[in-house]
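Long-time lurker. I teach an intro course on protein structure, and each term I like to show students one example going from raw sequence to a predicted 3D structure in token notation. This year I'd like something fresh instead of my usual example. Would anyone be willing to generate the tokens for the chain below so I can use it in lecture? Attribution to the forum is fine with me.
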Amino acid sequence: MSGSDRKRQKKLEQTRKKRELAKKEARKLEAKYTGASLLRTAERAPFGPCWVSVALDEPGGDGPPALVTVLVTRRIRGQLLGLLALVDRTCLGVKNANLLPLQPEQMMREFVDEAVRPIGKLRECEPDEAQAVVFHAIDYAASLGFGYHPDFEPSLLQPRPESLRETPLAHPAQPLYASGPDDDVAMILEQLDRVVGSKNYAVVDGFGGGWLSEEDDDDTNVIDDTNVIDTSAEELK
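-- Reply from a regular --
Happy to contribute to a lecture. Here you go:
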């Protein structure tokens, strides 16, 4: 093995050891701060890096508006706690969410590159942009009577800015619902009928981009209907 190869090997080994040490620190912190205590700690912690789908910047085409992925992190003693959210800006708000394990920043960035970007390209953004995308969507969904996904942790985006920055589709002219593979379409349409009236929203087939017919409504999978609530945007501020 040449001298340069030995140096490279030594550097790789040092990097590996640093990552293992960082992982151990993350596990220790998770053992100390679990459940609600971890979230309380995260609420008071500074924001770490945040990401949002590049689809946010792209003009809308003929199909339904793109769902937007938002990843927000908070720094806890050198580690990052992340919240990943799938956002529907024109109807349902936060459709899905995952609280990510406490981990080193390098691991979080690798997760974004290896697991998230292949699904939908992301760009790094300021925390207030990520907050605006999510809170605008939550507000609009709440005005229609829809709550956010049960795994969404709003505390990780708090405190809510007094004034949200403007983002694309922050204020839709009318609801536009794009059906998803796990949606109870009939239940969602019934809610929209009740809140805005049957002629005051648009529906597209999220699978193929075509308009749904009445016959399509029942041919769907069912999700937990606890996401339909009787509330208003004001109550979620």
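Some talking points for your students: The two ends are 62 Å apart (CA to CA). The chain has a mean pLDDT of 80.
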